[in-house]
Structure formats: structure tokens, C-alpha cells
Amino acid sequence: MRLLVIDTETTGLDPKQGHRIIEIGAIELQHRRPTGRTLHLYLNPERDIDVGATEVHGMTWDDLRDKPRFADVAHEFVEFARGAQWIIHNAPFDVGFLDAELARAGLPTTGEIHADVIDTLALARETFPGKRNNLDALCERFGVSNAQRTLHGALLDAGLLADVYLAMTRGQETLTIEMSTPGAGAAVGAVAELGAGRRPLILVQPAADELAAHAAYLEALDRESKGRCVWLSLARANAA
Questions:
Q1: What is the CA angle 65-71-23, rounded to 5?
Q2: Helical (H) or strand (E) element with 204
Q3: What is the pTM of this model?
Q4: DSSP assignment of 122-173, as one string?
């Protein structure tokens, strides 16, 4: 499934009060890896930006007056986003704004464009009930560096969310072995025949960045569980 991690910045909190999108950032993932394809749009909202919103993302209307309107680039967004599973933090917020912009441009709703939406805020609340689950908190929990995030930005936040989502859902991907497309950059260590009529078993050696990401995830899990990460405890015992 093609995944798109999407974030928006806006003039305010409620599209029903006429607030508009001023920035869209989207990052494409395939086989749980970034493909390098992104979409990043700054938009002229055709209205003032609330002071509170400017304090969050740092932009004013004067910064955006020379940017295209949403209607001018809407088809670019629709074509990039069509058919993908969208990953959004607090999805009702962004989807509500996107639906309002699409309706204003006379285009299909988000439900007619995407395959599905995963709300990472809802997922985090289910996984970590009673804890802070905003993006900064999740970055800290999963060892994702957000040092550069002094202000919100749609593409920056989409990149952080992509890392958080992959860390949060690691281990949930399918166990089916795809013969034609092992993970990009993965080294095939060996192929063992299991007998007539049986598919060969592909042994895949993890890359260095995958090992580092796994170690960071275990450390974050150990901190979150107050030292009760069994896998890490066993690894430490075997190393001793």
C-alpha cells in the first residue's frame, strides 16, 4: 500500500469560520520506506492569519500574498494524494480543512481521493492512554530527534510524523515474505530450499540504519516501561 504522511498549517482552528490552509506537506512511503517523493505547497489564504496561529508556525499573510491560491494547485495535490493511505496526526483537523478547500475549488472530497486514513493521535491514545500524545511527546518517546522544530512546518512535521509512525507500528507489518521485492537496500544472506512445492526461505540481513533504528526503539520502549523491556534485558544478559 502506498502511504502518504500529510500535515497542514492553517490561518486558525476552524474551517467553518472561514479559516484556510496556508501550507501542505506530504511524504510518500512505499514498503514502509520513504521514496524521496514529497509535495510541499505554500498557499495564499486570501485572509488574515490569527495571531495565535502565527505564534505556532511563524507565518503572516504578508509572507504568503505572492503564493498560489489552493484552487490554483488543487489538482497537483489531488493527483499526488489519490489512492494512497493517508497518515495524519489528529486527522479530523487536517481532513476538515482539506474538505473545505476542495469544496471551495469544486473538487471531490477527501473520502473520494484517499484509500483510507490512519489517525496517529487516535492510535497513540489507544497505545498510551493517559499520556501526552502530541507530536513532540511522541518524538521524545520513540527517540526521534525534533531539535530543529522551533516552529511548526507542514513538511518538517510530516517528516517527524513519518519517523514516529514507523517506530510506533514496527512489528505490525505483514509476515508474508515477498519473493520479488525484499526491502530496499537489504542484503540477502541466504536462500534455503524447503522441499518440493515449498517456497524458498529468504534470510534478510538488516542494514546498519535498520539496526540503529531498532536499538533506538528498544531504548525508548525501555524508558517508557521503566526498565521492563524484556527484549533489551535479554540482549544485555547475553552480552554480559
A1: 55
A2: strand 201-205
A3: 0.72
A4: HHHHHHSTTS--SHHHHHHHTT---TT-SS--HHHHHHHHHHHHHHHTTT-S
CA torsion 31-84-86-45 (nearest 10°) is 130
Residue 190 confidence class, pLDDT cut points 50, 70, 90:
very low
Write down all domains in the chain, each with its CATH number in brackets.
3-168 (3.30.420.10), 187-239 (no CATH)
R_g (Cα) of the chain, nearest Å: 21
Q: Cell numbers of 63, please?
A: 509572507
Say which of 31, 57, 89, 152 is annotated catalytic. Answer: 152
- Nearest Cα to Cα of residue 94 among 35, 10, 152: 10
89 is catalytic: no
Residue pLDDT, tens place only, 115-160: 999 999 999 999 999 999 999 999 999 999 998 888 899 999 999 9
Confidence of residue 182 (pLDDT cuts 50, 70, 90): very low
What is the rounded average pLDDT of the residues 77-106?
98
State the distance between the two ends of the chain, measured CA to CA, in whole angstroms: 42
